[in-house]
Write the structure tokens for this entry.
Amino acid sequence: MRVLMIAPPGAGKGTQGALIAAHFGIPHIATGELLRDHVTQRTSLGLAVQEYLDRGELVPDQVVLDMVREAMVAAKAAGGGYVLDGIPRNMQQARAAYLIARELGMTADVALHLDADDAEVTRRLLARAALEHRSDDTADVIAGRLALYHRVTAPIICWYRDRGILVSVDAMRPVQQIRREILTALDGMRPLLDSEAASARHPGDLATLAEAFGVTGPAAAPRG
Ligand code: ADP
């Protein structure tokens, strides 16, 4: 099972990503976690990205893409499944991540969208702030992260819908209900994924992607 997750901050990507990974026995590749580990360990990469994380800004695409490529290569060696959490966050990352996955023969089966409104995710992030003290869980930074999500991340969702791999769930409910809905949907897809040769999906994906990127260039009007 190969899943990538798209959701606003606070919708539960980390929580649900870990639950999906445990259910299917596949690696959970969480870009935010990987970056925070670097910061905690004060690696050179960590020192370079700390300010972006503190301000709730996206770290440069190439930093994340290099990390993700390495993690995907490891995921391939471990059997080929993955849950990708935190990428793509913009159009360039969507394209690059797709190309990395295609090169490795492991494009996503499902793009999982966790849908939650701004008021709810803000409430959750402020509650988390009281417990975890994450540097980016302050009211100002949360507002900026949400605005960034709506501006550059959410528009990617329709490309996955066009490719026919989008699964959207209502993430405004309790964790266990969301988990159950996600796992029911993903388990239900397994026979289909098993019976479809992965190679049969690639040409379709590529054509749709090229079309989506061609039509939805920066200068073009946003689509539906
Ligand atoms: P959240 O979704 O709650 O913002 P994450 O843990 O996914 O939390 O991300 C935390 C921070 O890590 C982001 O605000 C950003 O600075 C950085 N980050 C994570 N993933 C990416 C990415 N794909 N591209 C750029 N920056 C990223």
